[in-house]
Design brief:
Length: 101
């Protein structure tokens, strides 16, 4: 049950502390699954920030607007999917970065 709650908090941290909580969880939690998930969450946030910034820059040329919308929606939907999977005790990896770590 403790692992389940930590996973939910980790996924939800995308909305209030996207970098701080994954780093703290990685440092202070001994569970290897939580450590792996915290690295994935941190990498996912970093990738999403880069994609949103690049899309924002390209928005001046109008080609970035659709990408900006898609990436912003993805940044909200993916953590919610992670929360639901954690509540159901289902193993889940973040898209894109799940294969890196």
């Amino acid at each position: 049950m403790e692992s389940k709650g930590l996973k939910v908090i980790l996924h939800a941290s995308a909305f209030f502390a996207p970098c701080l909580l994954p780093i703290l969880f990685y440092i202070f939690i001994d569970d290897q699954q939580i450590k792996r998930l915290s690295i994935q969450a941190l990498l996912f946030q970093f990738v999403m920030w880069v994609l949103v910034i690049v899309s924002g820059i390209f928005s001046f040329l109008l080609i970035g607007l659709p990408f900006l919308v898609v990436f912003l929606i993805t940044g909200v939907v993916v953590p919610v999917i992670g929360i639901v999977k954690a509540l159901n005790d289902t193993d889940w990896n973040y898209p894109i970065v799940g294969k890196w770590y």
